[in-house]
Amino acid sequence: MANERILIVEDEEKLAQLLADYLSNSGFQPHCIHEGLGVEAWVKENAPSLILLDLMLPGKDGMEVCKDVRRFSDIPIIMVTARVEEIDRLLGLELGADDYVCKPYSPREVVARVKAVLRRSNHDNAPQDALIELNEKRYQATAHGQALNLTAVEFQLLSILMEEPGRIYSREQLMNHIYNDHRIVNDRTIDSHIKKLRKRIGEAIPDTTIIHSVYGVGYKYETDT
Q: Do residues 126 and 134 make contact, with C-beta atoms less than 8 angstroms apart?
């Protein structure tokens, strides 16, 4: 992962430089562009490993830039936004972003998200096994070839659990992975999402348990086969 080039598209120059410094300290090679125009040409010429793309940009906004890039590349894109109501659009089929970070944020958090997205991208786009296959680019999951029609949160939960089968994740760990915009969420919200996720999987592959509760601790992904 070291020495991978990260493109930062951010019109606030001081913030862009702060992110660049943190990424450099983590072994990445950051490059900053402060407006939407010119991003497509730069990406085609330099082929970065990931783009940190602000939503509100002069010249051309982040949504248009994302659409432009998606016409010719599947490069991972993390959208940066203060508009929480846009998140479903950012992560959905309309744009095909890989993740999002909400302002205000910690630069350390951004670096962690960059590493997580690159890790997923470098492992053939998604964890999968004989039962479940995930497509990170489209936020689609299938069980034995049948679409599960998961929400964005359900998909992220399943993806996290599948990254390390057998590992037990606490509710707090799962919430920190999914709700990275620091909103206040009751830990029972995770239980509700897990219940819905189990129901969708159970409809596709009955009599098979793959998401297990560990009493007093949390949840794990592990097939019975």
A: yes
Q: Which residue has the tokens 């592959």?
A: 205
Write the DSSP symbol of residue 128: B
pTM of the model: 0.56
Q: Which domains does the chain have, with CATH numbers?
A: 5-122 (3.40.50.2300), 132-221 (1.10.10.10)
Say how far apart CA 53 and CA 65 lie, in whole Å. Answer: 8
CA distance 56 to 1: 28
Q: Which residues are paired to 99 by β-bridges?
A: 78
Q: How far is Cα of residue 156 from the mean position of the Cα atoms in its chain?
A: 8
> Which pLDDT tens digits describe the chain residue by residue (225 residues)?
456 899 999 999 999 999 999 999 999 999 999 999 999 999 988 889 899 999 889 999 898 999 889 888 888 999 888 776 666 555 544 667 788 888 888 899 899 889 888 877 765 444 555 578 887 766 788 887 788 888 878 888 898 898 888 889 988 888 877 765 555 566 678 888 999 999 998 888 888 888 999 988 899 998 764
Six-digit token string for 78: 């993390």
